């Protein structure tokens, strides 16, 4: 392409500081270096983790930054040493890398990777190196991806090549939320046929967890949320029972135990709230109940009574649904293309990138499941 090897000036939504609206700016995007890929972002979802960084963690060291980590686009150019990607390829940038060489990548028990932004900088959620500048300042690349920009540069170990006919404004959701919730059920919890499950929180991640429970053959899926308006949508993905904790006169764990003869087999916490994490664990049956932490937070300690685990419950965490990123995402795209995985039903709003702050307001107030932001035309 004509832009190969040159700095690209493009539009991006910049988070200059915590707890402030994003600002549409012209930024400069450097050409890809060795083993890097420059991507034209076509579409991106807005995920709660973007809001977590902007409004909740408030780590000033993580700003200014371009947020966004749930995108899909087209390879514009590749840097030296890149052999498995070429301009024109459809791709999904990944916030978890898969180098294929480190001790984690070689171990089938985990999807962690020693390389990439996340190894040492979870607190500020970005690498200290960036391909972005604006007004003479370095702009950090959030989670190594920064999809709220028309162009971004990503290390090749954090890019998945996908099917040429995949609709980018749908499969972008596989860059985070849907893969995270779905995989938490099928990979991390390992939900079993005929089992009883509870899913706490019915945002996109929670609804994807419901979908995963159903795909794994659960016979009963209890959807738990303080917003009863979400229950109809949860039915679409397979929920069978519905509980609103604000309408109960006793703890939700006690109610679920009464509903299920002692507790559910599997409970997935998809909120990122340490109190809900404890409730999810306590909702599990003793003996074999498994509870999985899926919601992202790193701000508070969580706690439980030791007897909960001593009597046979298991507490686990799930990052990106347990999928090894470069291997897993293309397969999920293929499942969607074969109509074995829902994506369209998660999308409630579609907007241009410059309306990003409107999309943020929708999510803050629980008025959407997923908003797709159109960034560049294909």
UniProtKB/TrEMBL annotation:
It catalyses: S-(hydroxymethyl)glutathione + NAD(+) = S-formylglutathione + NADH + H(+); a secondary alcohol + NAD(+) = a ketone + NADH + H(+); S-(hydroxymethyl)glutathione + NADP(+) = S-formylglutathione + NADPH + H(+); a primary alcohol + NAD(+) = an aldehyde + NADH + H(+). It comes from Scleropages formosus (Asian bonytongue). GO terms for molecular function: alcohol dehydrogenase (NAD+) activity; S-(hydroxymethyl)glutathione dehydrogenase [NAD(P)+] activity; zinc ion binding. Keywords: Metal-binding, NAD, Oxidoreductase, Zinc. Its cofactor is Zn(2+). InterPro entries: ADH-like_C, ADH-like_N, ADH_3, ADH_Zn_CS, ER, GroES-like_sf, NAD(P)-bd_dom_sf. One of its GO terms (cellular component) is cytosol. This is S-(hydroxymethyl)glutathione dehydrogenase. One of its GO terms (biological process) is formaldehyde catabolic process. The gene is LOC108942597. The lineage of its organism: Eukaryota, Metazoa, Chordata, Craniata, Vertebrata. Residues 17-373 form the Enoyl reductase (ER) domain.
């Amino acid at each position: 392409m004509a832009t190969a090897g040159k700095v690209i000036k493009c539009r991006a939504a910049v988070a200059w500081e915590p707890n402030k609206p994003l600002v549409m700016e012209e930024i400069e995007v450097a050409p890809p270096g060795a083993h890097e890929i420059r991507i034209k972002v076509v579409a991106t979802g807005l995920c709660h983790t973007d809001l977590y960084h902007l409004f909740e963690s408030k780590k000033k060291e993580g700003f200014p930054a371009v947020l966004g980590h749930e995108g899909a686009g087209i390879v514009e150019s590749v840097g030296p040493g890149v052999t498995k990607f070429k301009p024109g390829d459809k791709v999904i940038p990944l916030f978890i890398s898969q180098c294929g060489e480190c001790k984690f990548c070689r171990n089938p028990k985990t999807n962690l990777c020693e390389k990439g932004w996340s190894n040492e900088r979870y607190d500020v959620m970005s690498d200290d190196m960036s391909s972005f500048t604006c007004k003479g300042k370095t702009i950090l690349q959030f989670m190594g991806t920064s999809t709220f920009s028309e162009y971004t540069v990503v290390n090749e170990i954090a890019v998945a090549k996908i099917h040429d006919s995949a609709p980018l404004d749908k499969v972008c959701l596989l860059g985070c939320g849907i893969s995270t919730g779905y995989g938490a059920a099928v990979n991390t919890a390992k939900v079993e046929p005929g089992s009883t499950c509870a899913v706490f929180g019915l945002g996109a991640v929670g609804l994807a967890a419901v979908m995963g429970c159903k795909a794994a053959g659960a016979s009963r899926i209890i959807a738990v949320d303080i917003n009863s308006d979400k229950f109809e949508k949860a039915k679409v993905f397979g929920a069978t029972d519905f509980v609103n904790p604000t309408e109960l006169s006793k703890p939700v764990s006690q109610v679920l135990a009464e509903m299920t003869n002692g507790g559910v087999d599997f409970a997935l916490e998809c909120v990122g709230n340490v109190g809900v994490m404890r409730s999810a664990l306590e909702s599990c049956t003793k003996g074999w109940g498994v509870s999985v932490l899926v919601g992202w937070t790193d701000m508070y300690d969580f706690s439980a009574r030791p007897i909960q685990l001593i009597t046979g419950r298991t507490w686990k965490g799930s990052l990106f649904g347990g999928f090894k990123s470069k291997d897993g995402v293309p397969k999920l795209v293929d499942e969607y293309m074969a109509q074995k995985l829902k994506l369209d039903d998660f999308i409630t709003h579609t907007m241009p990138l410059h309306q990003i702050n409107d999309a943020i307001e929708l999510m803050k107030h629980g008025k959407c499941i997923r908003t797709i932001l159109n960034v560049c035309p294909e």
